[in-house]
Design a protein that fits this description.
single chain; about 300 residues; alpha/beta; Rossmann fold; nine-stranded mixed sheet; 10 helices; about 40% helix; globular
């Protein structure tokens, strides 16, 4: 099921247009020269600028060797529901304040506990170093959440959330009640039709860097190695109801559109909200379109 914004919001807002310029000037990476040098500079940058952890997120009892988990509990009535949120950043970058804020806002409006795993990042680590632990975490979190666990994420974290949901299903664990996926990176092979064309309009993501991050996360430069950690290329049957968002100026839009086609006939209740002219992870940005997306998320989870 694919949904568009109402016609009054088809033209991106002024705040969105300003956000595009800010992103273009501050977030878009330049060409990559020597890959080995790029890797070393990346590791050094992550060491200088680690996760930006808000004071209201504390260490969770679910922390295990190799997987640090943070927790936030809104004030008031103890929650009976948990939001397990996986942050984006190309599987390579620490969590940012916008990601903590996005998870906190959903949890506050719906009286949910937040579990926020800080999974080990590429290029030092691959998906094999944390996926099994995250699959186990979903079932463990369900013990203290009688009203269910919502599994959510943005960008790479959105793709990882879908992959983890597939892992929970395959392991016979307690499944999430819902999935909320914001601009999820679902295909590390970058093989979706139309992706090079959309890349020309994306002010944030570039194919060259996305491909490098994909090889780091897969642990190999071989195309075949990127298939296994690509949930969009996996089995979509038996998954929880999902709400996905992606703008059409997002490099990841073609693979998300293709995912909707692949979901047909599988029985997966997947709602795809397309944002015409909107950029990567727009529901996390300080723009009017994000408020519309937030209301949609609250309705979906209520």
């Amino acid at each position: 099921m694919v949904h568009l914004f109402r016609p009054t919001l088809f033209r991106p807002s002024l705040r969105h247009r300003l956000a595009v310029e800010v992103v273009r000037r501050t977030r878009r990476g330049g060409p990559v020269g020597d890959p080995a040098t790029f890797r070393e500079r990346f590791l050094a940058a992550n060491e200088r600028f680690p996760h930006r952890i808000p004071v209201d997120f504390t260490e969770s009892a679910h922390t295990t060797p190799g997987l640090r988990v943070l927790e936030h509990v809104p004030g008031g009535v103890p929650p009976s529901r948990t939001l397990l949120y996986l942050h984006g950043g190309g599987y390579t970058k620490p969590a940012a304040s916008q990601q903590f804020a996005f998870a906190r806002r959903i949890a506050t409006d719906l009286r949910m506990r937040v579990l926020f795993p800080l999974y080990p990042l590429a290029p030092e680590h691959t998906w094999r170093d944390s996926r099994d632990a995250l699959v186990a975490l979903v079932s463990a979190a369900a013990v203290d959440a009688p009203d269910g666990v919502v599994l959510a994420g943005d960008s790479a974290g959105g793709g990882y959330a879908l992959s983890v949901a597939q892992g929970v299903r395959d392991a016979g664990g307690t499944p999430p009640s819902h999935l909320v996926l914001v601009s999820p990176w679902v295909d590390l092979t970058a093989s979706a039709p139309g992706q090079p064309e959309v890349a020309l309009t994306d002010p944030w993501l570039t194919l060259s860097r996305v491909n490098i991050y994909a090889t780091w996360w897969a642990g190999s430069q071989e195309d075949r190695a990127r298939t296994e950690p690509s949930p969009g290329l996996g089995d979509l049957r038996g998954l929880p109801p999902a709400l996905r968002f992606c703008g059409t100026r997002d490099l990841l839009y073609p693979e998300n559109a293709l995912l909707s086609e692949q979901a047909r006939g599988t029985g997966w209740d997947d709602t795809f909200v397309t944002g015409p002219g909107l950029i990567h992870v727009y529901p996390l940005l300080p723009i009017p379109e994000a408020r519309v997306a937030h209301r949609r998320i609250v309705e979906f989870l209520s």
